[in-house]
């Protein structure tokens, strides 16, 4: 097809271009027909330029302009001119000029739009995803996808300048138990056998360290067959990174330098030189989770001693086993928010989602306690108020539970709700490191230990003597990076000793024979002089979501699945022809409710 090809984009023209002959290509963003004069806002990904068909235009041009509708794709040839003084648009980069059209070519027409192409499309998500190719024309998501590009480019530039190689690892690998459910790919050539899509390049990057590559990174696609949610997808992208001959502090420092540079270059935000480090246990005790939002200062406090001194039986029962806890937080008096009984019930409901049986509370007024469980603290008003640092108008929220972690997490949910409801959250970006995680967690249902992160993470050296006799007390050389209440990266120093790796497998319920069957290629590599190594994997989708102020990673991915793992645009997942199944030697055993 022959057409007039653009000489400038729709975001280029400025006052200095007055009088220049130009060709623009783009989409009709808005059009206004004023009888003999037509105004057309022409859009491409670079911006918007106003095009004018004057009343002295030829009849042919007038007729063409009259045909135009939103999202028609057109070519405009014309001359740049200054807008009249009273018609300058300061909201547009090109707002001082317009193009007087000499000719317009309609390159393609557009059917009736399912929604308007706006800066930020507020249409329901499933409709947006059904017509994602249109949704992606909207200015807001175009800016986010552009920022994602620059974000990833800045990462590549930073690491390449520091001697890292970008190396691709396979996307068809052996299925190994790494925590989540694998996506399986049947082999046509080997009936009954399967590849798996990688949950992460974990084992491959460790093998690259065994191969002597020393500094590796990859912008890696990862796949996990699990329930989707706002900040998680079946397929996602992470920066995968591994280094040899390093200790934990080397990796943490590298990440601080990386994000310091990237945030400065891409979003023009200065981060501190070093991020705060919080031990896992302290994070649970103070914030109620291992991904705390540090942008507001409400902290949970130990209430055990005060609870024990009270006459409240519920508190005593929680502490009786020696494994429980009573924790409190002070919700500050905030203008425009009343701590009504209805609102307190909402806070209690948030706590119950995470296993709390209830939430005790007291208000502070005129230096005294009132309401809720106040009667159980007779004569203790001053001590409770001073110990917690409460003030008049504040609300004291208290959770008790026979299990310490459940107590912390449920009160942490109350803290999170208060932060949002009371508008306590400061703008900006606050990173922190969570360190000193337990290496293992106990699976109550299956009756054995599992890795807290994954089975290739090293224990801290002081726990090696008690590794097998007391797995529950072992801390790992693990670290998570947290930003604004989201975990954005996870990593560890890896095991590089074959015998230690076998011990970890045994503790996690894999005997030597099973370990060799599942991970033999890694164990074999560890027999040939592996270096000490460690790494980390920041999530690209989640980071870009946070820095663009979105609540869902759908807003920063070009073609995401919806919240139930379906693509409304192409209809996947979908059934396939019987011929394809026959070639793969597969038969479908449908659930009973799906059988016809």
Topology:
Elements lengths: L20 E13 L4 E7 L2 E7 L5 H9 L5 E10 L14 E12 L16 H6 L1 H4 L3 H22 L4 E2 L16 E4 L7 E4 L4 H9 L4 E9 L11 E10 L3 H19 L9 E4 H8 L13 E2 L1 H6 L3 H8 L4 E7 L9 H12 L7 E6 L2 E3 L10 H8 L6 E7 L2 H18 L9 E5 L4 E4 L4 E4 L26 E6 L2 E8 L4 H10 L4 H14 L7 E6 L1 H8 L30 H6 L13
Parallel strand pairs: 3-5, 6-9, 11-17
Antiparallel strand pairs: 1-2, 1-4, 2-3, 4-5, 7-8, 9-10, 10-22, 12-13, 13-16, 14-15, 14-16, 17-20, 18-19, 20-21, 21-22
Describe the structure.
With 596 residues, this protein is an alpha+beta fold. Among the domains are: 94 residues, OB fold (Dihydrolipoamide Acetyltransferase, E2P) (Beta Barrel); 130 residues, GAD-like domain (Gyrase A, domain 2), CATH 3.30.1360. 28% of the residues lie in helices and 23% in strands. It has 16 helices and 22 strands. The strands form five sheets. Strands 6-9-10-22-21-20-17-11 form an eight-stranded mixed β-sheet, with helices on both faces. It has a five-stranded mixed beta barrel with strand order 1-2-3-5-4. Strands 12-13-16-14-15 form a five-stranded antiparallel β-sheet. A hairpin with a 7-residue loop joins β7 and β8. α4 packs across α6, α10 crosses α12 and α13 packs antiparallel against α14. The radius of gyration is 30 Å and the shape is globular. The mean pLDDT is 95.
């Amino acid at each position: 097809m022959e057409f007039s090809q653009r000489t400038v984009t729709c975001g280029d023209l400025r006052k200095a271009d007055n009088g220049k002959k130009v060709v623009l290509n783009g989409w009709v963003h808005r059009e206004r027909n004023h009888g003999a004069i037509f105004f057309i806002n022409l859009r491409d990904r670079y911006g918007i330029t106003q095009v004018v068909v004057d009343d002295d235009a030829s009849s042919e041009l007038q007729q063409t302009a009259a045909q135009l509708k939103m999202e028609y794709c057109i070519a405009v040839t014309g001359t740049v001119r200054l807008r009249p003084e009273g018609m300058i648009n300061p909201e547009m980069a090109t707002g001082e000029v317009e193009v007087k059209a000499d000719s317009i070519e309609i390159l393609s027409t557009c059917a009736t739009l399912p929604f308007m192409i706006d800066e930020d499309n507020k249409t329901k998500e499933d409709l947006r995803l059904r017509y994602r190719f249109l949704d992606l024309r909207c200015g807001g998501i175009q800016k986010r996808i552009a920022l994602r590009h620059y974000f990833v480019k800045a990462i590549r530039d930073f690491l390449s300048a520091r001697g890292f190689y970008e190396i691709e690892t396979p996307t068809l690998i052996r299925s190994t138990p790494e925590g989540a459910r694998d996506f399986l790919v049947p082999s046509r050539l080997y009936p009954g056998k399967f590849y798996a899509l990688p949950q992460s390049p974990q084992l491959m990057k460790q093998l690259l360290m065994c191969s002597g590559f020393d500094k590796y990174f990859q912008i890696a696609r990862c796949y996990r067959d699990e329930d989707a949610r706002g900040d998680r997808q079946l397929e996602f992208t992470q920066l995968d990174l591994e280094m040899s001959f390093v200790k934990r502090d080397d990796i943490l420092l590298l990440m601080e330098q990386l994000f310091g540079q990237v945030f400065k270059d891409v979003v023009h935000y200065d981060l501190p030189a070093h991020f705060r480090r919080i031990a896992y246990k302290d994070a649970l005790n103070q914030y109620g989770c291992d991904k705390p939002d540090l942008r507001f200062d409400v902290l949970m406090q130990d209430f055990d001693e005060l609870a024990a001194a009270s006459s409240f039986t519920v508190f005593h029962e929680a502490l009786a086993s020696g494994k429980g806890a009573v924790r409190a937080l002070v919700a500050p008096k905030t203008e425009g928010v009343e701590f009504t009984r209805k609102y307190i019930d909402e806070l209690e409901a948030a706590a119950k989602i995470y296993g709390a049986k209830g939430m005790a509370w007291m208000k502070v007024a005129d230096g005294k306690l009132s309401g809720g469980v106040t009667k159980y603290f007779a004569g203790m008003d001053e001590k409770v108020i001073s110990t917690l640092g409460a003030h008049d108008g504040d609300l004291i929220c208290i959770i008790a539970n026979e299990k310490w972690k459940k107590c912390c997490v449920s009160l942490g949910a109350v803290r999170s709700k208060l932060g949002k409801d009371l508008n306590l959250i400061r703008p900006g970006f606050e990173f922190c490191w969570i360190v000193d995680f337990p290496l293992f967690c106990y699976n109550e249902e299956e009756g054995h230990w599992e890795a807290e992160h994954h089975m290739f993470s090293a224990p801290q050296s002081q726990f090696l003597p008690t590794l097998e006799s007391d797995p529950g007390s072992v801390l790992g050389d693990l670290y998570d990076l947290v930003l604004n209440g989201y975990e954005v990266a996870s990593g560890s120093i890896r095991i590089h000793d074959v015998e230690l790796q076998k011990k970890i497998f045994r503790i996690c319920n894999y005997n030597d024979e099973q370990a060799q069957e599942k991970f033999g290629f890694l164990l074999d590599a560890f027999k040939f002089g592996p270096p000490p190594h460690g790494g980390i994997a920041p999530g690209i989708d989640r980071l870009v979501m946070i820095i663009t102020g979105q609540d869902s990673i759908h807003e920063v991915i070009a073609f995401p699945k919806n919240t139930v793992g379906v693509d409304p645009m192409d209809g996947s997942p979908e059934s396939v022809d019987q011929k394809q199944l026959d070639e793969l030697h597969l038969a479908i055993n449908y659930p009973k409710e799906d059988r016809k």
